[in-house]
Amino acid sequence: MADNKSNFLKMSEKVAFDLNHRKIINFNIGRYDKAVKQGKERLFHLEMSRQKAQSIKHKVLSQLDKYLVEFETNFQRNGGKVIWATDAESAVNEIVNLLQKERINKVVKSKSMTTEEIDLNHFLEKKKISVFETDLGEFIVQRAGEKPYHIVTPAMHKSKEDVSALYHEQFGMPENSTPEEITAFTRKFLRDEYRQAGAGITGANFLIADSGSVALTENEGNGLLTMAFPKLHIVIAGIEKIIPSLEDLDLFWPLLATHGTGQVMTAYNSIISGPAPEGKGPSQMVVILLDNGRTNLLAKTRHRAALSCIRCGACLNVCPVYKNIGGYTYDTTYSGPIGSVITPHLKGMRDYSHLSFASTICGACTDVCPVKIPLHEMLLLNRNEAVEAGVVSSSDRFLIKQSSRLLLSRKLLDMTQGGTKNMVLKYFVSKSWGPHRQMPELAKKSFAQLWKEQQKKGDE
């Protein structure tokens, strides 16, 4: 616990004062903010849509076992296979077994945060299975030996000059290559990999219970090619991705597109219900349903709404903490407000409780969430749970206890004059408050003291 928190604080301080990083992030998020604002203006009854989406997700999470069984039944009826994975290790083992059984040594993969969650690429490479990310942003960070920086935009932390330098180093392209030239090169580079790969691995934006289908959303067409060429299509998805009906996509697809990128609809939206007819695509399709700590959240009535997340990334883009410390500082798959809410439950409160304290509780994340998850309230719930579980440091417990005792007592607050209080704040409290925070300067007399003096004058 101490090491994770200590590393988080050190990385936060380093990144927060990196002016070049801040410039890149503010520029890229600024473009998203503008697009999302325009996209929302094109949606009628946005608040009603958010309310309906929240209601549907609440219904699903209240009966998740029922909807998962319905999906499994219908998907198998369509010719597909479902595998249940309790944790990351079992999911990875199932995927490796599927690939080894078919003697597959090359895989193409579309963007999937769930595969990042289980560190799939690392384990496949250890088994001598080549993995090619096909989303442009994912391809860039893979070639750089990095992890995705953002839920939606994996290479958000890189400028076009950074990417050009990477392609010059990796592929010998000109140092001043344009984004268009880089995109064209990547497209050509990956085309042969699609043809040669024995398996395509994708995530799922939604799992549709009533039709037994997988809904996949993307902007580049790489997901379609990942599914189309190989003989085996493996889908890995968290158990929370279920929606009841095909008709619900009419609600969720526009909400995801608008809040994620500002589009009314994403460029490519696919619905896959099982293996393709002979000779027209993958002959096998397998869906791996991943728990990996999700039932820990589901068991907590006040926390389970966090599983409603549709991974649009909107809460990251508005979070003042994320915009200052960046995605890598969290050292988790899911960063920003949603990551700070779910990670302590997915990976352990003892090791990740500090993330819930890394927030201003301004509520911007809650305001922007398309499915109305009360994220700032859940951060407070996590803080309370961390304190009750005794996983906060003894110094933090002491400070909280003593500050609460002081602030709840009018008598103690009035015992000393403003000058003494300011000295205490400056030389003692400021060290705990943070070296880069400016302590407020208290008035010489409190309001209670001034009120008594005013009353006394009135009586005279």
**Shape, principal axes of CA atoms:** globular
Count the beta strands. Answer: 10
Judged by helices, strands and strand pairing, the structural class is alpha/beta
Round the mean pLDDT to the nearest integer and report it.
Answer: 92
Number of helices: 24
Instruction: Characterize the largest beta sheet: strand count, sense, and whether it forms a barrel.
Output: 6 strands, parallel
Low-confidence stretches: none
What would CATH call the class of the largest domain? Answer: Alpha Beta
Q: How far do the termini sit from each other?
A: 61 Å
When the domains are counted, the total is 3
Strand order of the largest sheet: 1-10-7-4-2-3
Structure report:
Helices cover 55% and strands 10% of the residues. It has helices at residues 2-16, 19-41, 46-62, 64-77, 88-101, 113-117, 120-126, 136-143, 160-171, 179-196, 222-228, 249-261, 294-298, 314-318, 320-325, 336-347, 349-352, 354-357, 364-368, 375-388, 394-407, 410-413, 418-433, 447-459, and strands at 81-85, 106-109, 130-133, 199-202, 206-208, 213-218, 232-238, 242-243, 268-272, 284-290. Helix 2 runs antiparallel to helix 12 and helix 16 (336-347) runs parallel beside helix 20 (375-388). It has three domains: 1-42 and 300-392, Fumarate Reductase Iron-sulfur Protein, Chain B, domain 2, CATH 1.10.1060; 48-292, NagB/RpiA/CoA transferase-like (Rossmann fold, 3-Layer(aba) Sandwich), CATH 3.40.50; 394-416 and 442-455, no CATH class. The model has no long low-confidence stretch (mean pLDDT 92). The N and C termini lie far apart (61 Å). With 460 residues, the chain is an alpha/beta fold.
